Amino acid sequence: MDLTSIKDPTFLKKCTKKDLEEVAQDIRHFLIEKLSVTGGHLGPNLGVVELTLVLHQLFDSPKDKFLWDVGHQAYVHKILTGRADQFDQLRQYKGLCGFPKRSESEHDVWETGHSSTSLSAAMGMAVARDIKGTDEVIIPVIGDGALTGGMALEALNHIGHEQKDMIVVLNDNEMSIAPNVGALHNVLGRMRTAGKYQKAKDELEMLIKRIPAFGGRLAATAERVKDSLKYLLVSGMFFEEMGFTYLGPVDGHDLDDLTTNMKYARKTKGPVLVHVITKKGKGYAPAENDAKGTWHGLGPYKIESGEVVKNLGLLVTVVSLQKH
Question: Cα separation of 127 and 49, whole Å?
Fold first, then answer.
C-alpha cells in the first residue's frame, strides 16, 4: 500500500491477518529505502513492526497512551499516525524528529530523548486517569536495555506497589546499542528459554481447582503447591514478585501470538507485563546479522550490499541546512 496515504491508524481496525502481513512488509521496504538515504535507527524499528501494528489495531491512540522507550523505536508508530510523507527529511533541520515529539502529533504523548523514563511517566498518567475517572489504557513500550536504568527500576517498584492498571510491553531483542550484559539481562535470558509461563500457570490452577475442597488446610496447601510449582515452570519470576501479571515470552513477529496476549493483557486488572521477543533488524539481512551494533543507528548505506556510506550523513545534514 501507499504508506504516505495513511492519515491515522483507524484503517487497521478492519485489517485481516493477511492485510497486516502485507502492511508489515510494505513498512519494512519503506524503512530500508528511506533510511538508506537519511540514516537513522533502522535495526530497532525493523524489530517492532508487527508489535506496533497490533498495538494500533487493538487500542485507540491517541485516547490510549503509547509511550515509546527508547523513543528511537517509534518510526513505525510515526508511519501509522500519518507521517510517512515526512521521512525524506528524517532527523534533518526542520524535518521529522527521530524520536516522539508532542508538537508533531497528538499520538506522541511522551517526549523521549533516550532511555528509562517511560514507566515513571506511565505511572503518572495512570494516577491522573484514575483521579479523573477516565478509562484510557496506558501502554509504555520499553526495551530490555532501557529496563536496566535506575529510573525504570524505581518505577517498576512504584507501579507494582500501587497496582495501577497498565500494560507494560517489554520489547526484548537481547540488545541495547550492542549486546547486553548484567544480572537483569541474565534473568530475561532464563525467561526467554522457559516457555509460555501464563499457559502453564493457568493449566496448573485448573488442575488445583479440581481437587475437592476438604477445608482450609487443603486449600492452603494447594496454594503453596501452586506457588512452588510456578518456580519449577519458570525460573526467576522477577516481575510476578514485583506485583505484575507476567505474560510471555511472546513471539514479537507472530501476529496471532501478539494479538492473543494483548487481548488477555487488556482484560487483566492491575499492572501487566507482556514480554515480547523481537529480532533487531528483522527482514534485512545485514541488520539481522549485526553483532557489533552497527545497524542500531547509522548514516546512509547501500541497500544491496549493506555497505555504510561513510561521512555522507554529515554531507546530507550540511546540504539540508544550506537549503533552509
Answer: 30
CB atoms within 10 A of CB 185: 17
Please identify which residue in the block is written with the cell numbers 540488545: 175
Q: Which amino acid is at 237?
A: M
Least confident of 65-74, 156-165, 191-200, 247-256: 191-200
pLDDT digits (tens, 9 = 90+) for 178-222: 455 455 555 555 555 455 555 555 555 555 556 555 445 555 555
Q: Give the span between the Cα atoms of 149 and 9, in whole angstroms.
A: 31
Report the mean per-residue pLDDT for the chain: 83
Quote the pLDDT of residue 199: 54
Interacting residues of 226 by C-beta distance below 8 A, sequence separation 6+: 204, 205, 208
C-alpha cell at 283: 527482514
- CA 84 – CA 96 distance, rounded (Å): 10
Say if strands 138-143 and 245-251 run parallel, antiparallel, or are unpaired. Answer: unpaired
Which region holds residue 71: left if phi is over 0, alpha if psi is between -120 and 50, else beta?
Answer: alpha
Q: What is the pLDDT of residue 309?
A: 85
- The cell for 141 is 513500550
Asked if 278 contacts 253 with a C-beta cutoff of 8 angstroms, the reply is yes
* Cell (9 digits) for 128: 491522573
Amino acid identity, residue 92?
Q
Helix orientation angle between 216-233 and 197-209, rounded to the nearest 10 degrees: 160
Q: What does the radius of gyration of the chain's CA atoms come to, in whole angstroms?
A: 21
CB atoms within 10 A of CB 142: 28
Residue 100 and residue 113 in contact, taking contact as beta carbons nearer than 8 Å: no
- Per the listing, cell 545497524 goes with 295
pTM (two decimals): 0.81
- What are the structural domains, with CATH classification, of the chain? 3-195+234-319 (3.40.50.970)
What are the grid coordinates assigned to 289, written together?
546479522
| 3-state DSSP assignment of residue 134 | coil
Q: Which of 248, 262, 265 is nearest to 201 (CA)?
A: 248
Backbone angles phi, psi at 250, to 5 degrees: -110, 135
